[in-house]
Design brief:
The protein has 12 helices and 12 strands. A hairpin with a 5-residue loop joins strand 7 and strand 8. The chain folds into 2 domains: about 210 residues, Spore Coat Polysaccharide Biosynthesis Protein SpsA, Chain A; about 90 residues, no CATH class. It starts with 5 loop residues before the first strand and ends with a helix. It is of the alpha/beta class. The strands form 2 sheets. The protein has an 8-stranded mixed beta sheet with strand order 3-2-1-4-10-6-11-9. A 4-stranded mixed beta sheet has the order 5-12-7-8.
Amino acid sequence: MQINNLAIIIPAYKPDFLNQALESIVHQTCKRFTLYIGNDASLYDLEPIVNLYVDRLNIVYKTFSANMGGGDLVGQWNRCIEMTQDEEWLWLFSDDDIMSENCVESFYSTIEKDQSVALLHINIDIINEVGDVSHQCKPFSENMHGVNIFSEKIKLKLSSTIVEYIFKRSLFESRNGFERFDLAWGSDDATWIKFAGLDPIKTIPYAKVYWRLSTKNISASVTDSSIVTRKVLANVEYLQWAKIFFKQNRIPDPTNSFEKLKWILQTVKQSPLRLIEKIRLNNIVSENAQFGFLTSLLGAMYLGLSELKFFFKNYK
């Protein structure tokens, strides 16, 4: 008898693409999983969408009495995981992304071949609001260490999201769950680095997750000055966390200060904020991360500063 050993978890709020996410799950070639959907006290009626699939999938659905994700997204992830039962493996998915039909089948095939693994990865591509692939992401190597994910992301060579990892419950519990940063910005990367420790993360071959970048998710929010500022400060906190983690585990950090600053400032550069506001954020980052004057000046130049007087006027 084949055992159902996988929990797929969707912290749900938005209805826009939920049907497409569930459609990709119902078409899995292997149905050895339970789907848990935690409605984050959504303002939208999600139940009619979920009801389309209750006869086709093993679904556990719950509507929480109060919204949590708006102020504590990691808290919402956690209470959705608490909905699960005794499955050995957990996959935190989303209400707007899509998985290829062979994901679950490939997952079981991988763990049957290598029973030592505790953290698995699935390669992704990025799709837009209509479901077309807008960016083909660089695939992970078959076995990739956490520090390599960190450095490749800092150098803007790699994409990594919350939905492309499957992990053992025992690993989640022994490593104290998800790392917490404001807006959960960087929480996923820190978590995978922490979960991996000194061990490599194994990529499941042939499967694919399609991560959706749309105006409906926070990743695309670059017009709100307060949100951009919170993202920037969360990234600084993430870098401070990584510095401590690498030092404690005697892992060399292969990135330099300017690469880190450039990585943080990409969000600022893409935003329509005024130049003076961008320079202010550059200086805040440099001060909080202790990057120093020269790195801060290079950051200002990266942002497109043509007149240095704006930089010197606002540098503290």
